[in-house]
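Lab notebook, bench 4. We co-purified these components, and the gel suggests they stay together. Before we commit to crystallization screens, I want a quick structural picture of the whole thing.
Request: model the full complex, all chains together.
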Amino acid sequence: MHFASDTLTHLHSAATTMNDQVAELFQYHRAQDVFFMLMLVAFLMMFIRRYEWGVALATLLVFATVFPLYILAYTTFFDAEINIELLIGAVFAAITLVIAIGVFLGHISTIAFLVVGVLFVPSYMFIEWFLFTALDGVLDAGGSILVHMFAAYWGWGVILGLRNKAVNDEPANTSVHSVSFVWLASMLLMVLWPSFVTALLPPEDVISGMANTYLAMVASVLVTYVILWALKRTIDPLVFTYAILAGGVAIGASVDLATPLQSWIIGLVGGGISTLSFLFLDGWLRKKTGVWDTMGVHNLHGVPGIIGGLAPIVLGLAGGAQAIAVVGTLVIGLVLGFIVGLILKVMPKPTKMLDDAEAFPAVEMRATDPA
Amino acid sequence: MHFASDTLTHLHSAATTMNDQVAELFQYHRAQDVFFMLMLVAFLMMFIRRYEWGVALATLLVFATVFPLYILAYTTFFDAEINIELLIGAVFAAITLVIAIGVFLGHISTIAFLVVGVLFVPSYMFIEWFLFTALDGVLDAGGSILVHMFAAYWGWGVILGLRNKAVNDEPANTSVHSVSFVWLASMLLMVLWPSFVTALLPPEDVISGMANTYLAMVASVLVTYVILWALKRTIDPLVFTYAILAGGVAIGASVDLATPLQSWIIGLVGGGISTLSFLFLDGWLRKKTGVWDTMGVHNLHGVPGIIGGLAPIVLGLAGGAQAIAVVGTLVIGLVLGFIVGLILKVMPKPTKMLDDAEAFPAVEMRATDPA
Amino acid sequence: MHFASDTLTHLHSAATTMNDQVAELFQYHRAQDVFFMLMLVAFLMMFIRRYEWGVALATLLVFATVFPLYILAYTTFFDAEINIELLIGAVFAAITLVIAIGVFLGHISTIAFLVVGVLFVPSYMFIEWFLFTALDGVLDAGGSILVHMFAAYWGWGVILGLRNKAVNDEPANTSVHSVSFVWLASMLLMVLWPSFVTALLPPEDVISGMANTYLAMVASVLVTYVILWALKRTIDPLVFTYAILAGGVAIGASVDLATPLQSWIIGLVGGGISTLSFLFLDGWLRKKTGVWDTMGVHNLHGVPGIIGGLAPIVLGLAGGAQAIAVVGTLVIGLVLGFIVGLILKVMPKPTKMLDDAEAFPAVEMRATDPA
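Here is the predicted assembly.
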């Protein structure tokens, strides 16, 4: 597997201090936490009142396509064996797409998500090859570039290819309970985040990675709250619950390299810039491009992903390859996503955007009994 | 402990490659995941609007009786010591009953669940003895037969013994948030499922068991969606969120034996037949028997449990004992459940079926503040 | 770290039977479970309809202050290195404050929680020093005294210092979905509890600690149900979901010392007395002191914490130091909390108590779409 080339070296050296089988079983639980996070991303996106089941359904459909196809591709074409590293690679691929669909949720029919899943796998395998085989020395143990940046820019590529402006006029109402699910998802994603960024690290880097990740995330909580309070005197829960996760996005590329203090600062910068993106960049981009990033993916994953990707350069740990990785992922993501967007354009559109009624017998079910 | 006799052999051979204590601590986390699943089963059943707290309460009451009584029985009568295997056995017993009560939830008073818990333990210990001591060579590492089939047919035995037709006329309304809890429960159950089916496996089978389980489950997601879309053009969330778990039910008996491709196919067959059971068998059975399987337990656990139980025979890995196990569990489950149902018949009935108001000060609490 | 002085001895002796690194990685997952519980405590307190997001926000703000400050203090002033024990110490500190704020939630402005976090850290470090350095031979592996008692009495100290009676007249309405979140939180806290009480135990005590904890908790479920049914004929979910956790609170101090039967009895006593505290002590205290313990912290953590702290004495395992620890924690908690309460008194008060509208754009968001 390409993406793991540098990580595998680590793991093999770790095998001298810890039984291989034991190390693998530890990865079982970190891997499972990543599957857990994949599902929670759906609940993070559940705030649009009329679309709450549609988000869950779309998440499951892309999981059901990306996960087995990724495994099939690597075992068939690259002689990979099915081990814990391959399973982690497959769920990383799936979670990347679950993040990416947040950009264009509601812009395509439910059944089109099966097509999206199939088309995503080669895109993702290409970016893995680009980052870890074509380039040499890219630091991204925790997926700031591979997962978050690629998700954001591939998703933006899709929406720019699709260019379906009708959705902009749809109301996106929320309800109390759906926003409470977002709080739950955000807070549990924060808890599980260390397993995501250390999933492919050798055992001896896991505890320090946990410390760095939680320090980055609590810094994001603090800075997000302070900025929202200072500028708005009110806490928009749909900005707060998202931006507090930006520390986790930004720490990914240097989780095994930064000091605790550096990690806290990376979280502070990531969370701060994510909050400002939600407040200012979001509206500007919407006006410029004429499309709407339904779940603010660019603000949480795109911008903080860039910050995280560049962090190792600022820390003096990485050089030119890291910069090429960041710029290349942005461009490749947009281009490959755009192509997929054009393909999706020819498929049938949803009759009514952002509405569970497109897929579910929602009207009857909801009419029954209020609250 | 009877049920673990063949598994224990496995574990002892594992001890040669991995420290016993380390293997046991890995089981701690898989065991904990099963306790997590026990609670999530309650939320999977939470969709009936007027019964959402009642389901949680009933789950806790049967947990509070089955778990300690199972441990008490094995330590008192069979000289078992309290170790991780016994704890897993006890939570397997408890989760089996939590599944089983889904058949007759709302048909009995809340307090009767304490009686159900007490009466269930000998039933469950008998089926353990039947499967793993009386029979020789039964393959069921992940509980397709012991947990899922027995839960379904024991539960059906109870409802046939009870025969309380009044409940059929009760409306079972849903609300948006309660169905969203069902989505959450279903998606997290999917994530945790590998820990359930590998809980009693030796360390060297855990990673491949994880791969097989997730492959079976994503196949169920796919087939459930395709069938519902093809036949109905709409996705009933209360069929979808249930049937997608059937792959996990069906993979149980061969999780340590099937190849990845076979696992995917087992999930496809399990999920497909579960979906068809929800769409067609459910109504037919209801008409024939005159009783209503409140939570569709037969469709998710009964039928896919049979598929899973027979899978090792189809794969050429098991023989006559496996067939006897499947048929025997069906018959024994129905008979033992029927006896318990007759006993429950003499206890006071709930004044109003499927209503939290029977147990909770629900009217005041709900009246306060809508949404 | 002071609190771990006796525990560390245990761990060092454990290192002879299990690789240090392996033991540390096992603690990774138990530690993560404690972070999970920290978030769930917020959802346990989410039942007040107009305050459900405010609880989550306050939880995150105290986490964002206590966690890094505790680490900063120990690494700066006590030359601690950042390892898994220090991370567990830090999340224990944070969860203690998350429990404590339940006493005075809604009595102070949201921004004041940042101040509370800063002021709490020295209080908590003092009680750690008192229990594990000043005293000798205090048994409290699972935090009955350090976490639960200190949280309750420090929180009560704060509210007595604040003395803001206005809040007593605020209505505290609930809604169905917010109470369902409480059920979810309570049931998952029960599942994760063994990781909390065994987080600092050596590997060889973890499995027996798990057995003892679950036995204590199922006993609490049973006794809470029986008492509520016997005395009230109805199950108040906001008493039931709380009191069933009292077994976990009470088992903390003797989780590594009690027999399974003793553990079950400790859970029975803890759950029973907690239930009675909710039914009778709560109202009496409110009348006597004129303040309202918003989340019933005294009933779940204070009284069962005392029971748990005294249990080792009853079991004949501890002596005078244990009694001094219990009484001292009560007094020190009240005094230190009282001082913080006086400081908070000079800060601006919330314009409207127990209302998300104080911090969130709640009115618009909730108005949009019912249910």
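Residues 5-346+353-358 of chain A form a domain with the Ammonium transporter fold fold (CATH 1.10.3430.10). Worth comparing against the SEC data before the next meeting. The mean pLDDT of chain A is 89.
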